[in-house]
Every structure is written in structure tokens, then in C-alpha cells.
Protein 1
Amino acid sequence: EQYAYYYKIGVFNPLDNGTLYNDSAADSFQREPHIPHFELLDLEGNSTGLDFTLVNIHTKPTLAVEEMNALGDVLNWSENYYGETDQIILGDFNADCSYASYDELINLTISSEEFIWLVPDNADTTIGGSRCAYDRIVASSNLDGRLSGNWGVDFAVNDGNVSDHRPVWFDIIRI
């Protein structure tokens, strides 16, 4: 497994190389989440004062619900480590079809009113015959009003040679 972040230089500035969540005590994840810290830049390339962490996760399909439930611990750890409350969880949640039912998803900690799910249940983020919304983006806030709500699945990028999933994206408003 490898985690990657594609972002526009001059729009976002990485504040570190990220860190893997230390899951040795609870052993809640087969693949530990990777958490980098970014800041949003204005049109002149200066800091807007908005910084946030990304929590990249790839759940084990058969443990998807349990691993998504454990994300609350990751968010608490990340907030203490970075001193940052604006967090965006993204990646392959396996949050659909046979791995997670609607009832299981709505009962997750990250399904409370505090969180904004950008990629909805009816999205198809996979390649092939299935029609599942495995890949998700969930924000812990509206990023100081900069979360536009625009999101999408990039159908042009992945022809199946890299992954059986398509890239998902979202917009943040620059001032």
C-alpha cells in the first residue's frame, strides 16, 4: 500500500511530510492512516491562515465498519499532535455494497452532524461491473467557509492499469 497526495503547488503548501498513525496499542487498522498537514495559500501565494490535516485511510474490506469507527481515535490523536481541528478524512473506506450497509454507515461516529460527507452513497468510485461508493471524502468542518461542496469522480484518469478505483476530488475556495 502507498498513499499519495496530488495538489497544486502555489495553492497548497505542505507543512510536513506527514506521519503514520501509531496504531500499535489498539491495533485497529490493518493499514495505518497517513496524516499530512497542509496550508491553503491565497491568490498571491501567501498563507490564508487555513491549515488542515488529511487523514488518508484504506480500510480492510471485511473490517471496514470497525476501522471507520476507529477513525475517531485517529482524529483525536491528530488534533493533539498538530493542534489542528480542521481535518479531512479521505481514501478507500470500502464504505458501500457488501462491506458496509447504509444502517452501519449512519451509525458511525464520523456520520454525526459535525461531519460533512462530500462523496455521497450513490457515487460510483470503482472500475468494472460493481457500482459502489468505496472512496470517500469526509470533512470535520466547513474549513472556515471555504469548503465549496464541489466534488467529483475523475473518470478520465484511471483506465484500470493503476487501481480498481477512480480518483475522487473536492474543491476548497481560495480568497
Protein 2
Amino acid sequence: ASPSHGMTLIGGSRRHMIIAASASAYQVDPLTISTDVTIRGTGAILERNAGNQVVDITAGTVSITGLKVRLSAGGGGADGIKCAAATLRLRQVTLEDNDDRGLDTNNCIVDVTQSVFSGNKVSGIRIVDGRASIRNSFFFNNGSNTAAAGGLSLNPNTTPNLVEFNTIVKNKAANNANSAGGIVCATGSAAIIARNNLVYESVMASEVLGSSCTHSYSVIGSANPPAGTMVRSMTRAEVGLANLDGTTLADYRLTGSSMLRGAADPAPSPAADSVDYDGQPRPNPTGMPA
């Protein structure tokens, strides 16, 4: 009757686990995953109120859909999900209010889509080695005034790497030349394609940092928009989010007047990016420029 007990039953032909939705959170200590498994948990919440990461992935090919993972505690290492030497796919997952990072990976193959990272005290995501695809996701209110990267900290060592169609706003980092609130692409990392993103109003710090990312068709705050194809800045009114001073996912959605609508790369997107966060076909409304 608990996710941890469910994992003891995974093996052989048993490779799927459904975590039932519940009004109260499941407490784990942590949920340890070391084998191939597909987990579906729409409406379910995992928490750990002491002792570091909530979910600890140490091996296997792991797919997680629908879970909310939050409130890790314990300071350094208190991540929502930690992944080492595994393959991890997150879809429609929320990682929020964790003491350290929402997702922290080391030598993993990572695919994140249609997910939300908010209120994590060090950063939304850290990628060390391995490679990553991060698409159609929201990153807001992550980081602190001592963090090196509030939203995304990227240091992959293999390719391909893609950061696309993400809303990265109001993340916080230290106010120095080695930090950025939105995206940090480590010097010397494998190449990262960053396109069709909004990186905006980072707190205290610059928006982006590092030459390993190639930015294109993106709107990046006026603090330091990098060189790139169709990379530009906009005013708050032109960006047109529902409430740039808010704290919820709804606050960072586009309004009908937003100039971001139809501003992505007009070339056809890969099949994986043909829908948006809500699963609606892109572009939406139909008939707009791509």
C-alpha cells in the first residue's frame, strides 16, 4: 500500500507501477529505483521530510508520468529526484519546494517534457555528464541569492542536447559574473541547442551564461541577451504573461496579446515538439505562423 513497497514487487515481467491519486502525500524514505520501471502517478504526491532526496534512481530505464515530488529536507542533497547512471524520462511531473534541486543528474540520459519546476531552493535542474532533452516545461521561482544557477545548470558531456519551448522566469542566482538565474551552460560542456525559449526577469543575476548553448528564436531578458539567430528582448507588455509577479503556473501562461505567440522558429518542429505543455497542437491557434 505504499510506493516503496510497490518497488519491491517490480522485476521480471512486472515493470509498471501505478501510484493512486491521494489527497494526502505519500511519505517515502526515499523511493529507491534501481531497475527498469514505468511509473504513472497522476494526482499522487511524494514527500520526504528529512534525509535528502525524495526519489533516488541508481540504475535502469525509468519513466515517470504525472507525479508531484516535493518538500525534500536535509540541505545539500535534498533533491526532489536524484539520478545517477540511468535513463530517465519525466512527463507531466511537478518538482517543487525542495531544499536543494528539483532534479539532479549525474551521467544520466534525461528526457523532460511538459513538467513544472518551481520553488526549489538551489535550482530547478542540474545536468552533470550524460545528455539531456528538456522541452515544453516551466521553471519559475527556483534558486537563491547564493546559487550559481537558478533555473537550469547544464554540463553534459555527450550529445545531442536540446532545451526548447520552455518558460524560464523569475529564477534567482548570485549577482556575479559566474552565475545566471535562467540557464547556465558550463564552459567546455557538450554542445546544447537552446531554441524557442523565454528566459526572463531573473532575480539579482543575469539571464544566461556560457558559450556551450547556441540560442535561437528565443526571448531573453534585457540583462544580457546573447548573440544568436532571432534572439531578442521584449518589454513586459510585449511578453504578455498573465502575471509576471505571481507565484503559480497560471501566472506564467501567455495571454492573447503576447508577442511570443507565433514567434518560434518557423521551420517545422520535430514530432516531439509538435504539441505544447497542455498537449495541444503547435501552433495554437492553428493558422498562426509556427
